[in-house]
Design goal:
Elements lengths: L1 E5 L8 H11 L4 E5 L1 H10 L2 H8 L21 E7 L1 H9 L5 H9 L6 E6 L3 H5 L3 H10 L3 E2 L21 H9 L4
Parallel strand pairs: 1-2, 1-3, 3-4, 4-5
Length: 179
């Protein structure tokens, strides 16, 4: 089972065609959880039904109430793509202030559960003095990072430069977690 988690970064609208559909085609069972911002974007753009129909599972944004059944089966691999700088920082520090972050934070460091993260960040995020520590924390916990200039060339904020999300590189990293 692949748990797809996405945050509200530019390009997230391509999640279905770029990651969910190819993962389904590759034989993964897929459950999708979005951060509150991404969830609002998907609802506003009418993208929820297509994902739910294809996966056969509800798209999650909100936490379930006590006593409600778990809407997704247990996950073998989580992929967080795109992950904003905020999402990366919270995962590195163990914060789970929404459903998407809670499930991935609980998975990091858990035997038998792989975590892949694609940081969708700009040059200013990477220059921040806390950034190297966040990346080091995730790597030391065994998180697979999809990063580097060959995957995601950094641009300056508000420069007008934009790169499409490297969905193929993300899916390759996910497929690399299969036993």
């Amino acid at each position: 089972m692949l748990g797809v988690v996405a945050s509200g970064a530019g390009g997230v609208e391509g999640l279905f065609d770029g990651l969910v559909r190819p993962a389904l085609d590759a034989g993964w069972r897929v459950g999708v959880t979005l951060t509150p911002t991404a969830g609002r974007w998907f609802r506003d753009k009418g993208l929820v039904a297509e994902i739910e129909e294809a996966t056969g599972l509800p798209l999650r944004v909100d936490s379930r109430l006590p006593g409600e059944p778990k809407p997704h089966p247990p996950v073998d691999t989580y992929v967080v793509a795109p992950a904003t700088a905020n999402t990366v920082a919270k995962l590195a520090l163990g914060f789970g202030d929404n459903q998407a972050l809670t499930q991935v934070s609980e998975a990091i460091g858990t035997d038998g559960v792989e975590v892949v993260v694609f940081p969708c960040v700009n040059a200013a995020h990477v220059r921040h003095p806390a950034w190297p520590g966040h990346i080091a924390n995730l790597r030391s916990a065994g998180v697979h990072l999809v990063d580097g200039e060959d995957v995601w060339p950094l641009t300056e904020p508000r420069s007008g430069e934009w790169h499409p999300i490297p969905w193929r590189a993300v899916l390759d990293a996910v497929d690399g977690t299969r036993p």
